[in-house]
């Protein structure tokens, strides 16, 4: 089990990572990460929605993810706040596959900024912009 110092639990911390962090994804998992200047260790939180399955399945996925991060904590060199989101396809994974996918995400976190994707800010378009697109034939 992850030690208390490695757990991200506060809703505000989750929101801060989502809004200001960067993300990377693979077929089974999405990771959002943000440097944490207030700590000298990483913290990780998990989000597994009802789309993944019923409670038993969701809890199994969270247990596997917690253990995968616990076993690979040496791979995380810097103090990051991490939020890991399990996609519905993660329900079919065995432990070894979960570990491989976690290692894949952690390796790609360390790549240069050109490889990282920033969460896109949604912009509101006015009704006139939408109508202008329709006239041009763009939908």
Automatic annotation (TrEMBL):
Enzyme Commission number(s): 3.1.26.5
Keyword tRNA processing: yes
Comp. bias (Basic and acidic residues): 107-116, 126-139
GO CC annotations, alphabetized: ribonuclease P complex
InterPro entries associated with the record: Ribosomal_Su5_D2-typ_SF, Ribsml_uS5_D2-typ_fold_subgr, RNase_P, RNase_P_CS
Keywords, alphabetical: Endonuclease, Hydrolase, Nuclease, RNA-binding, tRNA processing
UniProt GO MF annotations: 3'-tRNA processing endoribonuclease activity; ribonuclease P activity; tRNA binding
Enzyme class: hydrolase
Keyword Manganese: no
Region (Disordered): 107-139
Entry-linked Gene3D superfamilies: 3.30.230.10
The reaction(s) this protein catalyses: Endonucleolytic cleavage of RNA, removing 5'-extranucleotides from tRNA precursor
GO-annotated biological processes: tRNA 5'-leader removal
Pfam families xref list: Ribonuclease_P
Signal peptide per UniProt: none
Entry superkingdom: Bacteria
PANTHER family, per the entry: RIBONUCLEASE P PROTEIN COMPONENT (PTHR33992)
Biological role stated in the UniProt entry: RNaseP catalyzes the removal of the 5'-leader sequence from pre-tRNA to produce the mature 5'-terminus. It can also cleave other RNA substrates such as 4.5S RNA. The protein component plays an auxiliary but essential role in vivo by binding to the 5'-leader sequence and broadening the substrate specificity of the ribozyme.
Family: Belongs to the RnpA family.
Quaternary structure annotation from Swiss-Prot or TrEMBL: Consists of a catalytic RNA component (M1 or rnpB) and a protein subunit.
HAMAP family: RNase_P
Name of this protein: Ribonuclease P protein component
